[in-house]
Amino acid sequence: MKRRVLEILACPLDRYHPLDLYEFLADNETIRQGVLVCPKCSRYFPIMDEIPIMLPDEMRKEKEEMEFLQKWKQKIPEAVLKSAKPFHI
Length: 89
Prior knowledge:
Elements: E1 20-26, E2 31-38, E3 43-48, E4 51-52, H1 62-71, H2 78-83
Antiparallel strand pairs: 1-2, 2-3, 3-4
């Protein structure tokens, strides 16, 4: 995901902007792995292979996202890991 995209991204559920960004693997222009968090509704949206996964809860893949949370749990804020929607550890 290009950094400039952050300026236009909002939570797809409540339209909150700006989202909090936690980067795990990135360079000056591109975020390859990370997570976006909506402070209003407490949802997280993973950035996997440069693509932000910003789907409604019912369209998200629990197995894939749980693997993502486990892989990056050392870099994800504890509040996100324990209580963020739609899935948490």
